[in-house]
Each structure stands twice: as structure tokens, then as C-alpha cells.
């Protein structure tokens, strides 16, 4: 395979890909939790939460491919196993079926954790002059911060 010559040295590309791997792991864990809650939510707000969780996990699912493909464009393999995601994610698995209110609280925390992971990459991305990754991060931050706000509003 020909060497990659996109104007970002290999060391910086590796740092960015490693950071994006953490973001991918957080994003996948968030996706899985949200889909689980969609399946298992109960209570008086079932219809609205069930539909909202579906919208959220659908958006998250589509984002996974974008993040993984950016890692690949930088020249590194994207993580893709549960084992890798568990090791890389800052979000803990949810193995129980919490109440609807607890589900919303957990999702707020997971959305915010994913936003923090995305935000933590800007220093290395900016130093490497990597605008495509910066754009991806900005778009993901917008989604996670807005979704966290909407979920927090349910708890008010």
C-alpha cells in the first residue's frame, strides 16, 4: 500500500486515530445503551421516550460509520469488537433495566461523557492542522450537547 501523504505526519495521525478510537467506543456504548433503553422503557412516558430513544440511537448508529471511516482515512484500523469498545470507552455498560427516569439520567451522563471525549481531541487535531477531524468533532459535540440538554429538560 502506498504511504499516506495528506499533510499530517504519522505520529500525529496515530494520536488522532487513537483519540477517535475512544470516541468510537464511547459512541458505540452510548448507542447500545440507548437502544437497550428503547426496548425496555416502561411507564407513563413510554410512547414519548420509546420514540425519542429510537431517534437518538438511529442518529448514533449513523455516526459510528463516520468516526470509523475517519480513523481508516488516517491510516489505522478502527476498533470493532465488544472487547475493544469496553477497554476504550469511558462509559460503563448498563446491565440492568433501570426506571424510565434513571434511563434518562444515565443517558444524560453518557451523552456528556461522549461530548467530553470528543472535546478532548481538539488540541492534537488543531496542532496537526486536521480540519476534517475538527469538523467531525464539532458536529458530534453539537449533537451530544443538544441531546444532553433535551434529556436534562425531561428531568426538570
What is the CATH C level class, in words? Mainly Alpha
Count up the domains. 1
Number of separate helices: 6
Mean pLDDT: 97
Task: Give a short synopsis of this structure.
By secondary structure, the chain is mostly helical.
Q: How would you characterize this protein structure?
A:
With about 160 residues, this protein is mainly α. It has one domain (about 10-155): Up-down Bundle (Ferritin), CATH 1.20.1260. About 75% of the residues lie in helices and about 0% in strands. It is built from six helices and no strands. It has helices spanning about 10-40, 45-75, 80-90, 100-120, 120-125, 130-155. Helix 1 (about 10-40) packs antiparallel against helix 4 (about 100-120). The model has no long low-confidence stretch (mean pLDDT about 95).
Keywords:
single chain; 156 residues; mainly alpha; Ferritin; 6 helices; 75% helix; elongated
Draw up the topology in text.
Elements: H1 10-40, H2 46-73, H3 82-88, H4 100-119, H5 122-127, H6 131-155
Helix pairs in contact: 1-2, 1-3, 1-4, 2-6, 4-6
